[in-house]
């Protein structure tokens, strides 16, 4: 059967805003038209108003080339397109070259408009990467040096004015220093502003996730209250069905297996709801509030053990030297969800590699199952991500539910689980672990199977333990 593609995994249209974009093409086109208009007005005023002898043909060709390039760009790219860093660098380099040619035709550095060489460099420093700014600054410096030598004379009227070479050299040095200083200064300020904007965006995103997680906590409490009575009824009915089965049925008969599974799953749901209702700080004063890493892993995996699936622990150092961590509910539930996912989809074993140093502990959960779906691997940890594909795990599978054909019960030729999942398991686990300062990354092993790496900052865990 072909994998079913849902709306959450269908190929999305290419975004108009590329990562790292700071310059919109429409703005650049508008500024270019202003530059073309200004250049035309300046040439007409100098030629007609001041009676200067401007080389009209090459100057008009240079201005016309910029206008033609701008027209072609405007016709090819319609809409609010944000330029990639490399594309914006090319556009600004073309503008700078056109200006250098125009200045070379009208006096070079003696032209009072030579200060406009700074404009493309300033725009790059404010909107593009530091690499682009450096390249444009090098081009501007090279162009300034060339204008000091390769230029036509300034089209003065009458006898004209001979500008001393020392003055020209001063203009050369001042423009080069201005390019270097402004590029470095504006680029540093823009970089700090971008960092602050990124930090603000990350803070807003974290706040939004916290709000969603708090909402999920309220839903969990409501579910624990509302589902108690229906689960009790299901358990009673399952027990009565089990007693009413004919005694002649053998123990391995599918009906006996189904009723036993129904009763055990109902009891499991009741235990989960009881855990949700328990106070999380009941055991903080017990001797088992702090556990070695290996004991914490075993405690988190114990409720999700699968028959025939072995859990193996490997240590990167002496087992006796492993650090102890507090038995925080966020840590237990988040780690338990990830271990449940691994145990549920492993073929024969799950390996947890435990490593540590003075700063952090590292837990690497590996299984020999089908691994994560590459199509959603980069989106794991976000809610409502589901592929619905069989034989591969997706973000939705981490919520503790297996897909059809992978359930521990016999399905007797029918699907026992739905392909529609909300994908909240990894999202909740990742946010719970983030509460204790941990970070989670997902991937697949080269030999096959999934790989989840958890980094636990020991200092942050000690502070959390003292606060509780």
TrEMBL record:
Its EC number is 2.7.13.3. NCBIfam families: ActS_PrrB_HisK. It is a multi-pass membrane protein. The lineage of its organism: Bacteria, Pseudomonadati, Pseudomonadota, Alphaproteobacteria, Rhodospirillales. SUPFAM superfamilies: ATPase domain of HSP90 chaperone/DNA topoisomerase II/histidine kinase (SSF55874), Homodimeric domain of signal transducing histidine kinase (SSF47384). Gene3D superfamilies: 1.10.287.130, Histidine kinase-like ATPase, C-terminal domain (3.30.565.10). Keywords: ATP-binding, Cell membrane, Kinase, Membrane, Nucleotide-binding, Transferase, Transmembrane, Transmembrane helix. Its main location: membrane. It is found in: Cell membrane. Residues 387-418 are annotated as: Disordered. Residues 408-418 have a biased composition (Basic and acidic residues). It comes from the Bacteria. Signal peptide: none annotated. PANTHER family: SENSOR PROTEIN CREC, SENSOR PROTEIN RSTB. The keyword Membrane applies. It holds the Pfam family HATPase_c. This is histidine kinase. InterPro entries: 2C_sensor_his_kinase, HATPase_C_sf, HATPase_dom, His_kinase_dom, HisK_dim/P_dom, HisK_dim/P_sf, RegB. The chain crosses the membrane at residues 30-50, 56-75, 135-154, 166-186. GO terms for molecular function: kinase activity. Residues 222-460 form the Histidine kinase domain. It catalyses: ATP + protein L-histidine = ADP + protein N-phospho-L-histidine.
């Amino acid at each position: 059967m072909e994998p079913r593609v849902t709306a959450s995994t269908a190929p999305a249209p290419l975004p108009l805003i590329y990562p790292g974009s700071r310059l919109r093409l429409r703005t650049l086109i508008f500024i270019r038209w202003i530059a073309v208009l200004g250049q035309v007005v300046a040439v007409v005023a100098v030629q007609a108003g001041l009676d200067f002898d401007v080389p009209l043909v090459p100057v008009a060709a240079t201005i016309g080339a910029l206008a033609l390039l701008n027209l072609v760009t405007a016709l090819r790219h319609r809409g609010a397109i944000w330029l990639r860093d490399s594309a914006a660098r090319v556009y600004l380099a073309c503008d700078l070259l056109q200006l250098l040619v125009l200045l070379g035709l009208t006096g070079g550095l003696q032209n009072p408009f030579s200060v406009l060489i700074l404009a493309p460099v300033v725009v790059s420093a404010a909107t593009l990467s530091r690499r682009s700014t450096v390249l444009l600054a090098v081009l501007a410096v090279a162009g300034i040096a060339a204008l000091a030598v390769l230029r036509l004379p300034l089209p003065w009227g009458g006898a004209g004015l001979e500008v001393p070479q020392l003055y020209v050299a001063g203009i050369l040095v001042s423009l080069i220093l201005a390019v270097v200083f402004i590029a470095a200064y504006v680029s540093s300020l823009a970089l700090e502003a971008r960092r602050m904007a990124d930090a603000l965006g990350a803070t807003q995103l974290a706040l939004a996730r916290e709000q969603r997680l708090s909402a999920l906590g309220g839903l969990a409490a409501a579910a624990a209250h509302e589902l108690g009575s229906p689960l009790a009824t299901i358990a009673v009915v399952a027990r009565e069905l089990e007693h009413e089965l004919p005694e002649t049925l053998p123990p391995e008969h599918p009906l006996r297996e189904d009723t036993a599974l129904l009763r055990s799953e109902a009891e499991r749901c009741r235990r989960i709801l009881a855990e949700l209702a328990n106070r999380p700080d009941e055991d903080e004063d017990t001797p088992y509030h702090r556990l070695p890493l290996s004991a914490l892993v075993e405690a988190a995996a114990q409720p999700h053990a699968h028959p025939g699936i072995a859990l193996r622990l490997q240590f990167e150092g002496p087992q006796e030297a492993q650090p102890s961590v507090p038995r925080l509910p966020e840590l237990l539930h988040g780690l338990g969800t990830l271990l449940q996912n691994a145990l549920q989809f492993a073929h024969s074993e799950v390996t947890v590699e435990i490593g540590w140093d003075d700063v952090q502990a590292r837990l690497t959960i590996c299984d020999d199952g089908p691994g994560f779906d590459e199509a959603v691997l980069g989106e794991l940890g976000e809610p409502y991500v589901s592929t619905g594909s069989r034989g591969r795990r997706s973000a939705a599978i981490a919520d503790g539910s297996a897909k059809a054909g992978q359930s521990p019960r016999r399905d007797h030729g029918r699907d026992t689980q739905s392909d529609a999942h909300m994908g909240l398991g990894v999202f909740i686990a990742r946010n719970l672990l983030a509460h204790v300062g941990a970070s989670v990354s997902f991937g697949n092993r080269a030999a096959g199977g999934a790989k989840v790496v958890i980094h636990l900052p020991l200092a942050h865990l000690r502070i959390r333990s003292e606060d509780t």
